[in-house]
Design a protein that fits this description.
Chain lengths: ~400, ~425
C-alpha cells in the first residue's frame, strides 16, 4: 500500500477531484500553463495516446472526454445529426465556446469513425492548433505493426519537439516513461484495492480520482492516488449487501457520475471497469533501458488492454479479458453500459455477451448518453440484477 | 409532380434499363451463380469488403470473391433487408449500428440465400481489409464467430494528414508480403505468382481508364449519365468481383461506347422511366444512397429534371478520377496505395476539397448530402462538409437523411419536401445571379 503522511481524509481528496471534474473551463490546466512561460498543453481524446511523449516535451497532456451532463450544448448540435453519439458534439462545444482556447495541440486516437472524422473537423475549425489523428497498428507482429508504430511515434516526437521549439530527447522520454510507470502502478493498486474492498473505495470516488489524472500533471496525480489510497485504507466505511459487478462499454463517452453512483446505490459494487482506459492501458511497466519508442511500441503490442477498438486476432481469445476480469475481481456479473450510437461498444457487445454466456456469467445491458438525466430505470434494472444474483447465483 | 409510394407488396412496373445496365446485371448474376456453385466446383471463397477490395490478389489464389456489402445492397433492393435487420436485432444487435451488418447477420439467420435463391457457401477465409470504416473490423469479427474460419487482417492506416507517407505504404506492403499472401497461399493451396498479379493489374488499368471517361462525361451538358443512381450500376463490376478481368474490360468498353453514343445524340441519362427529360439541375451528391427505396428516391430527382453529375459514393472503391491507376510495375505497393486512397479513407479536409472541386469542375448547381443514419464513416462531419463546400463554391447545399438498407428510416415525404425546397433555392440563386448581371 502506498503511504501518505499528510493525513488527508478520503473526502478531502475526493472533493478536490470533484472540483476538477466540475470545472469545464479547465482552470487547473490553464494555471499550469500560465505558471511558466513557453508551457504547452496537448489535449487527447479516448482511448489511448502515449502521454509519456507529451510529458517528455515538458507539456501537459490534457484528457478531453466530452462535456458531461453539466455542459449545455448550443453550437455542437449544429455539427452533428441526431444519430451520432454525444461526445463529439460536446467536445466541439468545448472548442467553439473557447473553453479549450489554451490548448496548443489535439490528438485524436484511432477508436472509431466519429473521433477519426472529428480530427479533420478540428483541423478545419481550429487551424492554429496542432492536430494529429493518432493511428495505432492492428497488426501485432513486432516487425510489422511494431515497426509501423515506432515510426508513427517518431513522427509524433518530432512534431511535438517542433511545437515546443526543441527536439525531445530519448533521455527525456525515458524519464517520462518512469513517471508514468509509477502512475500506472498506483492506478493498478487503486483498482486492486477496490476489487478487494469495494465498500472502502466507492466506484464514483475511484472514478473522480482517476479522472483527475486527465487534467493534473502526472506527478500531482500520483500523489493524489497515494493520498486517496492511504485514506481509504484508514477509514472504515459501512459494507453493504451488494453484489460485485464488472462495468464495461464505458471506454469513450463517459457515463454521468450519477449513473456510476446509481449502480452502487442499486446494489452493485463496481469491482472493475473500462473507464478512462488511458490511465492503465499499458498493463505492465515499460522498460526504461534501451530505445524508449521501441519499448512503448512493444508494450502497446503485447501488454495493453483489450477493448473494442482493437482487433483480436485469435477467436479463442475474443472476450476472454472480460472473463478474466470477472475471475480476478471475484465479480458475480457484468453490466454492459454503452453510449447510444457507439459503434465500437455496441458492435462488440453481442460477441462479449456470447462469451459470458458460455462462461456462465450473468449480465445486463443498457445504453446511456453523457447527459442522461433519468437514472430511475437504470437503478431499477441494476437493482433487479443485483437481487437476481443474490437470490439465484448462490452456490 | 406525383410520387408513387412503393411498398413491398406493390407490383412494380417494368423498368427501363440501357444495354450496359442489362449487361451489368448479367455479370452480377453470373457471379452469384459462380459463388453458389462452389459446392460443385470445389472453388474456395474469400469474403472481403468493397473499399480495399483486393480482387486481383484474390484471383491469384483462384478464390471466389464474396462481398457482404453488395449482398446487403441486393437484399435492400429486393426488399428483404428490413426483415433481416429485424432478425439481427432480435438476436441482440443494437438498433444503433450499421444496417449492412445487421442485414448480413439476419440473412445468415434466415438461411443465407443469395439473390439466385441458392444458399451462399460458407467463406474459407475472411479477408478483413480494414479500410476507411471502423465497422468492418467488428463485422468480420462477428462473421468469424459464426463461421469459425480463418480471418486475415489487412490494416489500412487512415489519411489523417491528407497524405500517404512511406511508413503507411511500407506497413501495408509488409502485411501483404508476410501475412496476407502466405495465409492465402495456405488456405487456397495455390502458390502466389507475382507475374499473374501483374497481368490482372494491367487489365484493371484498362477498365479504370474507361470508367473514368464515363464518369467524366457528366461534365457535358446535358450530362449523358447520372453519376450517382446510374453510377451505382457503373461501379458494380469494378468495385466488385470483376476488377482485373477481361469481363470488366469488355463491360467498360461497352459502357463507354454506349455513353459516347448518348453524348453524340445530346441525350441525358436513362432512368427507370425511360430517357430523362430536360436537364434542369446539376447536382453533386455526397453519401451512399438508400437502397430499400432506390427507385422512388431516384424518381424524386429525375421527375424534377435533376441529374447527379458527380458523387463521392462512387469513389468508395477507388478514386480513379483523381488519377489513381493500379500500377503493374509496383504490384504490392499499388494495392497498398489503392486501399489508402479510397474515399472513406480520406480525411475530412480532403473530402471537402474533392466535393468543392466536383461542384466547380462539373459546373453543378450545388451539393446535396444524403446522410445515412447508420454509417458514421460517411455521416460524422457531413454538416461541416456542407457548410464548407457552400462557402467555397458559393453554391447552395442541402441535407436529406435516410439509411442504407433499413426501410424504417426512409421517409419519402420528408425527403421529397427537402428536395423540392432545395430546387427552389437553386432557382432563387439563379434568379439572383441573373438580376445581379
Amino acid at each position: 500500500m502506498a503511504a501518505s503522511l499528510n493525513g488527508l481524509k478520503a473526502a478531502d481528496v475526493v472533493a478536490q477531484a470533484q472540483r476538477l471534474f466540475d470545472d469545464l473551463s479547465f482552470t487547473a490546466a490553464r494555471e499550469w500553463k500560465a505558471a511558466a512561460p513557453g508551457r504547452k498543453v496537448v489535449g487527447y481524446m479516448p482511448i489511448y495516446v502515449p502521454r509519456e511523449i507529451i510529458h517528455a516535451g515538458g507539456m501537459l497532456p490534457l484528457g478531453i472526454v466530452g462535456g458531461g451532463d453539466q455542459l449545455e450544448v448550443i453550437h455542437g448540435d449544429a455539427y452533428y445529426q441526431s444519430y451520432i453519439c454525444r461526445i463529439p458534439r460536446s467536445t466541439i462545444e468545448l472548442g467553439v465556446s473557447g473553453r479549450l482556447d489554451f490548448v496548443d495541440g489535439m490528438l485524436f486516437p484511432s477508436i472509431c469513425d466519429v473521433i477519426r472524422n472529428l480530427s479533420g473537423m478540428w483541423k478545419m475549425m481550429f487551424p492554429s492548433v496542432y492536430v494529429r489523428y493518432f493511428d495505432v497498428p492492428q497488426n501485432y507482429r513486432d516487425d510489422i505493426g511494431g515497426n509501423y508504430y515506432v515510426n508513427e511515434l517518431s513522427e509524433l516526437v518530432r512534431d511535438l519537439g517542433e511545437l515546443r521549439g526543441k527536439p525531445i530527447t530519448h533521455d527525456e522520454l525515458r524519464q517520462s516513461i518512469a513517471v508514468y510507470n509509477e502512475n500506472r502502478r498506483l492506478v493498478r493498486q487503486l483498482y486492486a484495492f477496490r476489487a478487494e474492498r469495494p465498500w472502502q473505495a466507492p466506484a464514483a470516488e475511484v472514478y473522480l480520482v482517476l479522472r483527475a489524472g486527465l487534467v493534473l500533471p502526472v506527478e500531482q496525480h500520483s500523489a493524489m492516488i497515494r493520498d486517496y489510497l492511504a485514506a481509504a485504507e484508514r477509514e472504515e466505511r459501512p459494507r453493504r449487501d451488494n453484489c460485485r459487478i464488472v462495468l464495461t462499454g464505458v471506454f469513450c463517452e463517459q457515463p454521468p457520475l450519477n449513473l456510476i453512483k446509481s449502480l452502487e446505490l442499486a446494489g452493485c459494487y463496481v469491482v472493475d471497469d473500462d473507464l478512462l482506459l488511458v490511465t492503465r492501458w499499458l498493463t505492465a511497466d515499460v522498460p526504461i533501458e534501451g530505445d524508449p519508442l521501441q519499448n512503448l511500441a512493444l508494450a502497446f503490442l503485447h501488454q495493453s488492454e483489450s477493448t473494442a477498438a482493437k482487433y483480436e486476432p485469435d477467436l479463442k481469445e475474443k472476450g476472454q479479458h472480460l472473463v478474466r476480469a470477472v475471475k480476478r475481481t471475484g465479480a458475480e456479473g457484468v453490466i454492459f453500459a454503452c453510449p447510444s450510437f457507439c459503434d465500437p461498444a455496441l458492435l462488440e457487445r453481442p460477441m462479449l455477451q456470447h462469451v459470458l454466456k458460455d462462461a456462465g456469467i450473468p449480465y445486463i445491458a443498457f445504453k446511456y448518453a453523457e447527459n442522461s438525466g433519468q437514472m430511475q430505470p437504470i437503478r431499477e434494472q441494476a437493482g433487479t440484477f443485483s437481487d437476481s444474483i443474490k437470490l439465484w447465483s448462490a452456490p | 409532380m406525383s410520387t408513387v409510394f412503393v411498398t413491398p407488396k406493390t407490383k412494380t412496373k417494368e423498368v427501363n434499363k440501357d444495354a450496359s445496365m442489362l449487361k451489368q446485371k448479367e455479370m452480377m448474376a453470373a457471379h452469384y451463380d459462380r459463388l453458389t456453385n462452389v459446392p460443385q466446383s470445389g472453388a474456395k471463397v474469400a469474403a472481403t469488403f468493397v473499399p480495399g477490395n483486393l480482387n486481383e490478389l484474390i484471383m491469384c489464389f483462384d478464390l471466389v470473391n464474396n462481398l457482404p456489402e453488395v449482398n446487403a445492397i441486393q437484399n435492400g433492393l429486393r426488399r428483404l433487408s428490413g426483415g433481416y435487420v429485424l432478425e439481427a436485432e432480435k438476436l441482440g444487435h443494437s438498433e444503433d449500428v450499421c444496417t449492412y451488418v445487421k442485414s448480413d447477420i439476419g440473412m445468415m439467420a434466415k438461411g443465407n440465400l443469395a439473390p439466385n435463391g441458392k444458399k451462399f457457401p460458407d467463406p474459407d477465409v475472411l479477408l478483413l481489409s480494414y479500410t476507411g470504416c471502423f465497422t468492418f473490423m467488428k463485422w468480420f469479427e462477428l462473421l468469424r464467430e459464426q463461421y469459425k474460419c480463418e480471418t486475415i487482417m489487412l490494416h489500412t492506416p487512415y489519411m489523417g494528414d491528407g497524405k500517404i507517407t512511406p511508413n503507411m505504404t511500407e506497413y501495408m506492403v509488409k502485411q501483404l508480403k508476410e501475412e496476407v499472401i502466405p495465409k492465402l497461399e495456405r488456405i487456397s493451396g495455390v502458390k502466389f505468382d507475382i507475374d499473374r498479379l501483374r497481368e490482372y493489374l494491367k487489365k484493371s488499368v484498362k477498365a479504370e481508364d474507361d470508367l473514368v471517361w464515363v464518369l467524366q462525361s457528366a461534365k457535358n451538358k446535358p450530362s449523358p449519365i447520372d453519376a450517382y443512381f446510374g453510377g451505382i450500376y457503373y461501379i458494380g463490376p469494378i468495385f466488385g468481383a470483376f476488377r482485373g478481368t477481361d469481363d470488366a474490360i469488355e463491360y467498360y468498353k461497352f459502357l463507354r461506347d454506349e455513353v459516347e453514343d448518348r453524348l453524340a445524340h445530346g441525350q441525358g441519362p436513362v432512368t427507370p422511366d425511360g430517357d430523362m427529360g430536360k436537364e434542369r439541375y446539376r447536382l453533386v451528391v455526397e453519401g451512399p444512397p438508400n437502397y430499400t427505396n432506390f427507385r422512388q428516391f431516384w424518381k424524386m430527382f429525375y421527375d424534377e429534371g435533376a441529374v447527379v453529375v458527380a458523387s463521392s459514393y462512387t469513389k468508395v472503391g477507388g478514386v480513379y478520377d483523381l488519377g489513381f491507376r493500379h500500377d503493374p510495375d509496383k504490384p504490392l505497393e499499388t494495392l497498398a496505395e489503392y486501399c489508402l486512397g479510397v474515399y472513406t479513407n480520406r480525411s475530412l479536409p480532403m473530402r471537402i476539397e474533392m466535393l468543392s472541386n466536383y461542384v466547380k469542375d462539373y459546373d453543378a448547381d450545388g451539393l446535396l448530402i444524403n446522410s445515412i443514419k447508420s454509417c458514421n464513416s460517411f455521416s460524422a462531419g457531413q454538416l461541416l462538409i456542407m457548410r464548407e463546400v457552400e462557402k467555397r463554391t458559393g453554391k447552395p447545399a442541402a441535407f436529406v437523411e435516410s439509411d442504407l438498407v433499413d426501410p424504417r428510416y426512409f421517409s419519402a415525404a420528408n425527403i421529397k419536401n427537402r428536395l423540392e425546397s432545395y430546387f427552389q433555392m437553386i432557382e432563387q440563386k439563379r434568379a439572383g445571379a441573373r438580376s445581379a448581371a
